[in-house]
Amino acid sequence: MPQALAPSSPLASEQADIACPFCGLLCDDLEMSEALSPKQPPHRACPRAQLGYTAAELTGNPGIAGKPADFEAALSAAIRLLRASKRPLFSGLGSDVQGLRALFKLAERCGAVVDHMHSGALNSSLRVLQSLGWHTTTLGEVQNRADLVVILGVDLDRGFPRFLARHVAGQDALQPARRAQRRVIYLGPKAHAPTCPAELPLEVLPTPTARLAESLRTLQGLLQGIPLPRTGKAAALAPLAARIKAAEYPVFVWAPGQLPATVSDLVIGAACELVAQINRTRRAAGLALGGDDGAQSALAVSAWLTGFGTGVGFSRGALKPQGELGGSAAALAEGGCDLILHLSSFGPAHLPAADKPRIVLAPPGFAPREAPDVYLPIGIPGVDHPGQLIRTDGVVALPLRALRPARHPSAASVLRQLFAALERKS
Question: Taking a C-beta distance cutoff of 8 angstroms, is the pair 392, 156 a contact?
Answer without folding.
Answer: no
